[in-house]
Amino acid sequence: MKQHCKNLSLRLRLILLFGMLALVTWLLASAIAWYQTRHNINEVFDTQQMLFAKRLASTGVGDMLLQNHEVRLPETKKLVHKSGRGHTDDDALTFAIFNLQGNMLLNDGENGKNIRFDKNTQGFIDSEINNNDDPWRLLWLTTADGRFRIAVGQEYDYRQDMAWNLVSGQLLPWLACLPILLLAMMVMMGVELRPLRRVAGDLHRRAPDDASPLSTDRVPSEVLPLVLSLNALFTRTGDMLTRERRFTSDAAHELRSPLAALRVQTEVVQLSGDDNEMREHALQNLTTSIDRASRLVDQLLTLSRLESFSGLDELKPVDWAELIAQTLGEQDAAAHAKGIALRFENTGTPPAMEG
């Protein structure tokens, strides 16, 4: 179970990552849309309140009220039947007109009768009205002749509800489509990750000694470096197998003669009987053959190690004179035993070489 959790599917991780990214993006877009919509709604309704207040101030309604002594309009539901009111809201807009003494001369018959008189404010203010604890946006305006005070109000909840309706109408459908988007992403990722599954299938079916390169046809550029690295690994593995086969073949071929000589010298020792001279000679030849076989094995192993290197480090120029003198010294004893004299005559300059 722990191993399964550690080896979580790349496809599943990408889907979870993109899903979280989409959700965070949606939340961020919602916050920005909510802020912008509230700002625009407040700007529109503030403008509407200002125009309405200026219209009331310019109609001369205050003088008519002083003559008729009317203090409020009838409620909307008394003016028109429910079927004729449309989609009106009592909190959308309300107003009241006062004289400078704070006496209410006229209101809209709805929430306007609850507006508290404010003598000093000129312009917009956030406040409350009587019998209502919700915040209101109020505009106070004094008429040009300075005789009346006009108040136009709107409940903030009305603005909030309108802003939410505008934002949710755009963002909620997108949120509802998020599962469809995730499903589409799952299908698309399954299709796009198919080359990885194909490479995995090729590796699964590959024979242990198969060093042929993987096909790079229709491999995405992101996966191509992995496939090329695997092909390079297969090439190195193939070269190593080739060297091992060649070393085995060379060792079998080169050791055949020394082993045959060892067998012959062993038989001579066995047949020498009481002939001490023959036995000693055979033992000496046997020792020489063993030394040659050991040297041959060492040379084959060294050659095998050198062939496995793509390049050698810490190279230095070869001193041919010292190398030849060392070789002659190693062979001098054997040559002298056979009556051969070894001598080196330098007849030219060998090419420079590093090793």
Largest sheet geometry: 5 strands, antiparallel
Q: Which architecture name of the largest domain does CATH use?
A: 2-Layer Sandwich
What would you call the shape? Answer: rod-shaped
**Count of individual domains:** 3
CATH classification, class level of the largest domain: Alpha Beta
Membrane topology: Multi-pass membrane protein
EC number: 2.7.13.3
InterPro entries: 2CSK_N, His_kinase_dom, HisK_dim/P_dom, HisK_dim/P_sf, QseC, TCS_sensor_his_kinase
Enzyme class: transferase
Written overview of the protein:
With 355 residues, the chain is α+β, with helices and mostly antiparallel strands. The protein has three domains: 2-77 and 89-179, Beta-Lactamase (2-Layer Sandwich); 211-311, Orthogonal Bundle (Helix Hairpins); 313-355, no CATH class. The protein contains ten helices and five strands, in the order ααααβββββαααααα. It has helices at 2-6, 10-58, 61-68, 76-79, 156-176, 178-192, 194-205, 224-271, 276-307, 320-337; strands at residues 94-99, 104-107, 123-129, 132-142, 148-155. It has a five-stranded antiparallel beta sheet with strand order 2-1-5-4-3. Helix 2 (10-58) runs antiparallel to helix 5. The longest helix is centred in the first third of the chain and has 49 residues, at 10-58. The protein is rod-shaped, with a radius of gyration of 52 Å. Mean pLDDT is 77; it is low at 1-5 and 83-87. Residues 250-355 form the Histidine kinase domain. One of its GO terms (molecular function) is kinase activity. Its main location: membrane. This is histidine kinase. It holds the Pfam family HisKA.
